[in-house]
Automatic annotation (TrEMBL):
Domain MARVEL: 20-173
Cell compartments where the protein resides: Membrane
Positions of transmembrane segments: 26-49, 69-91, 103-127, 147-169
Pfam families: MARVEL
The organism of origin for this protein: Priapulus caudatus
Feature: compositional bias, Polar residues: 262-276
Protein name per its UniProtKB record: Synaptogyrin-1-like
Gene this chain is encoded by: LOC106806918
Region entry Disordered, spans: 191-231, 262-283
Family statement drawn from the similarity comment of this UniProt entry: Belongs to the synaptogyrin family.
Classification of source organism: Eukaryota, Metazoa, Ecdysozoa, Scalidophora, Priapulida
Amino acid sequence: MDGRAYGAGKAIQGIDPLRVIKKPRVILRLVSLLFSIIVFGCISSQAWYTDKEGYTWCQYNHDSNACSFGVAVGVIAFLGLILFLVSDVIFENLSSIKTRKHIVIADMGISGLWTFMWFICFCYLTNAWSRSVVENLPRDGSGRNGVQGAITFCFFSIFTWAGMTFFAVKRFREGVSATFMPGYDQDAWGTSPQQGAAPASSAYPGVGDSQTPYQEQPFGSRPAGGMGGVVTPSANAIEKVQFPTDLQQLSPAQVVRAGDHSTLSMSGGASANAVSPNAPYYA
């Protein structure tokens, strides 16, 4: 079973418009987009009128703030819906769990906030319209349908935005399924590497391993007669070396080697019980 992260499966290649449009939250966004256009369109084009003296008034009880507030809420809702529709189109192509989480949190917060703003806008416009004096409105009734239509679609927008908030909360609570997280963009999620994954092998054998496959042979087990006849004996191979009284009297012919013991025989020589094991001698 494929894992899911915030309401969508693993990232896919390409975009299927029909698949995106069929989603409930996308349908609600499109309906809310239409409602927002109706609200700020009706207020902008029909809520304002000019009296005989040339003054421009808002039909909502001559409260220009009511008209401005309704237009502002509608325009901002329209722009926000455009952004979230774009995010819905590319959401399944996002491989970053962290990016998905941020989009869902933004959707949840803005949808909840604008549900409240539409409720305030509905109450504000309804109250201002109910207090309007008929004598102060256009006698021919022009723009009245637009003013009342804006109030009606403010009311409808409360429910569509509440629905989007519900789906955003549902996606956020769904989070990331257990089958989705392992091996899928762990760095973007901010967690440790894959659990149970084998450590990366080194390009060179033995590097980074607990057991080194190659070990150097003991110093004393090197074969005698190395390069150029130079041999460095181990400490155990030297037991006693006798030196002549005058080292300058030593001749190469007097060097004798027998088995594992090295003895320097010289006439009238003194003896030394220790020689540095690192000092080479010639066989």
